[in-house]
């Protein structure tokens, strides 16, 4: 692509290219909504302002006729890569992941939408078209019954979005940020470790290593998070259905759709 450097990373919504020695360019898919791009720029800016990440967003720009946004360049590797290079470090990686997540949840704000409202709005979207009117009503009642909160929630928190950087940790991809009960965010991360499709653009080696190890890492992460915060499994389980709603409504990945809908139906049927 003209005007951008080498490919740094590949994701579902965008590719990341080198721009300068200290910046990268996130170039979005042509079909990615401009509203979603503007929200990511706004939320990434808020995350930096709140001290949630050391990575600054430098605003929306153009890349050879395609929409893009510029960000600080990360000087380090994702925690997934750290574990891949030395599986003996998996427990340490899981501990770092949990402690970073707990640190984020200690930040309170009203700059992001309530996660319960986000989930409820998604129930009216196309991925939920297979639900009957009665099922949608029961699902909305369930979501409305969930507890509130004012903690920052990342909602896509996993070891490929958390990096070693500058002697510390940097969390990226603040494109689905909300606020509310931290258990909602932990339930989303647990789902990513157990039910979600593996990450796009991963190498064959990454798929093999992470596919075999993610369950173990997920259990280590969860054990550490619960230990550090005192959160109970019962509180976390209460958000499992909302996590499936968020995952399905935000991404609607074909390979996940039936499984997520089945999980949602099994709860609202009770």
From TrEMBL:
The GO terms describing molecular function are:
transferase activity
Which UniProt key words apply to this protein? Transferase
- What is the originating organism of this protein? Microbacterium gawkjiense
Protein name, please?
Aminoglycoside phosphotransferase family protein
Instruction: Name the Pfam families on file.
Output: APH
Q: Which residue ranges does the record assign to the Aminoglycoside phosphotransferase domain?
A: 7-197
Q: What is its EC number?
A: 2.7.1.-
Which leading EC class covers this enzyme? transferase
**Top-level division of the source organism's lineage:** Bacteria
Gene3D superfamilies in the record: 3.90.1200.10
